[in-house]
Amino acid sequence: MLTNHIGIKVKNIEESQKFYCDNLGFELDHKYDDDKRTLVFLKNENSVIELVYVKTSEYNSVMNGIVEHIAFTVDDIEKYTEDLMDRGVKFVTCHPMEIDDKLVIFFEGPSGEKLELVQHLI
């Protein structure tokens, strides 16, 4: 079984789309918009992320099932970290940490979602 996509509830759909495309190499795949919500599907060579913006206040306050974090595998964590820092991305941890034969570092997306870079050492 493979993951089809990951949905992230966002505060601002345009800001979030720009963040994932400009900083993490995603491209717009398709968009759906109706009276209640806007869905933006972004893809890269290995992943699909669905950005979910809810327009109705009764659903917008519901936080159940929100994704805790999303991890992206990279070949050079130092390079990606430096590039994201140069772009003004807010980091949760100051530098990559070694955990179980991998380096990891956490940062935030524009809606406060926690994101992680992972570099496997073996």
Automatic annotation (TrEMBL):
Annotated InterPro entries: Glyas_Bleomycin-R_OHBP_Dase (IPR029068), Glyas_Fos-R_dOase_dom (IPR004360), MMCE/EMCE_epimerase (IPR051785), VOC_core (IPR037523)
Record-level Gene Ontology MF annotations: lyase activity; metal ion binding; methylmalonyl-CoA epimerase activity
Highest taxon of source: Bacteria
Residues annotated as domain VOC: 2-120
Pfam family, one: Glyoxalase
Gene Ontology process terms (BP): L-methylmalonyl-CoA metabolic process
Record keywords: Lyase, Metal-binding
Protein name listed in UniProt: Lactoylglutathione lyase
Species lineage: Bacteria, Bacillati, Bacillota, Clostridia, Eubacteriales
